[in-house]
Amino acid sequence: MSTGARLFTALVLIAGCKGEDFKEPQTLGGVSIAPETLNQGRRVYVRLCAGCHGPDGKGTTTARTAAVPPRDLTLGRYKFLSPPASGVGLPTDEDLARSIRFGFDGTQMAPIAGTSDEEVMAVAHYVKTFSSRWRELRPDPPVAMPADPWTHGTDAPGREAAITRGYRVYHGVAQCWACHPGYASADALNVMVQQAVVESGETPLKKVPQRADLGASAPVETAFGKVLPPDFLGDKVRAAKTPEDFFRAVAAGIGGTPMPAWHDRLSARDLWAVVHYVRELVRMRGTPRAQAWRLGIPASPSTQGSRSTNGTTVGVSDRARD
Ligand code: HEC
Ligand code: HEC
């Protein structure tokens, strides 16, 4: 870029911050965005977002004292994305639109209603103007989302089998309990890890190192400060609502945090299995049966659609929707 062009860009940016109109298109994430779109996005931002994120996007508003402070949008770092979190860490437009439209459970950022898709997309583009990362980088391609093999097809094994396998993936194969709580006794967890090691063709470990406080989450450092990963039986998850959202969180990981992308470490079958298991925990939150799930998958004589799978009987929650 020539010095003149740089100066011009700088002036346009300052104009943007001051609340004056964008006159020229801007290249954000490798795509040219029309000034009309950015101006429309700014109007939506001033109306719906600036109260928390601040006119300059830095989030230094009164909302910053909340347990989960509004994001500093000038960082250009995102948690909820479909490209692998280990890459550039920028979300797709669909990811941003989803976050803006549905908000984040357990935080102050509520879903927005009465706003058109066009306005949501315009403010998604406008938000990018706060960070230089969007001028320099473009989002990586999203992780693949294969069909769920547990529930698709005529001889699909079904949700209960998926939950049983997911329980083993969570505790044995992927060891999600390194950060999230473990929902199994120390002995059961030990057995599941040993089984996973044998499955992988390696020699069983002598001793599986476990956290002393396995029943609680372990605090982790992130680009946004120290956070406690969710306890699925106790806390609200932020963005994940549909099975696809859970798949995305697990397969792509959570940006800016140590939660890794699992898309290249787990098979599609195991990815979907752990999604079914974690969703079942989330469904149990606040129900009388939650306590039973803290200790492992309860063998349940429940009348509600119980079925024996691989010798283990699991109950499907009363709140099950699919
Ligand atoms: C009531 C306060 C509040 C309002 C209003 C609000 N936000 Fe947020 N926003 C938050 C909080 C809190 C977070 C941090 C969530 C987290 O870290 O899990 C956040 C995070 C974000 C993120 C980061 C998402 C990610 O993947 O990490 C974006 C982008 C965002 N907000 C955009 C917007 C836009 C655009 C609007 C207006 C349409 C808006 N916000 C309105 C509080 C708010
Ligand atoms: C290295 C630590 C770590 C590991 C290992 C880990 N996570 Fe996470 N996880 C996190 C953090 C950090 C968050 C985000 C917390 C926040 O929003 O502040 C998170 C969030 C989540 C969410 C919530 C997404 C949302 O919408 O809020 C899901 C679901 C999840 N993890 C599932 C898993 C599963 C399944 C595994 C194992 C396959 C796993 N995690 C392994 C640290 C970890």
- Uncertain residue segments: 9-16, 300-322
Measure the end-to-end span: 53 Å
- Listing every helix as H and every strand as E from the N terminus to the C terminus, the arrangement reads HEEHHHHHHHEEHHHEE
Small molecules (ligands, ions, cofactors) in the structure = heme C
- The chain-level structural class is mainly alpha
Q: Which strand order do you get reading across the main beta sheet? A: 1-2
Give the strand content: 5-15%
How would the blueprint of this fold be written?
Layout: H1 3-18, E1 26-28, E2 31-33, H2 35-48, H3 50-53, H4 93-102, H5 117-128, H6 133-136, H7 159-173, H8 186-199, E3 220-222, E4 225-227, H9 243-252, H10 268-284, H11 290-294, E5 307-309, E6 312-314
Bound molecules: heme C (HEC) (2 copies).
Descriptive notes:
The chain has 322 residues and is mainly alpha-helical. It has 2 domains: 3-136, Cytochrome c-like domain (Cytochrome Bc1 Complex, Chain D, domain 2); 159-314, Cytochrome c-like domain (Cytochrome Bc1 Complex, Chain D, domain 2), CATH 1.10.760. It is 38% helix and 6% strand. It is built from 11 helices and 6 strands. It has a two-stranded antiparallel sheet. The protein has a two-stranded antiparallel sheet with strand order 3-4. Strand 3 (220-222) and strand 4 (225-227) form a beta hairpin. The radius of gyration is 22 Å and the shape is elongated. The relative contact order is 0.12.
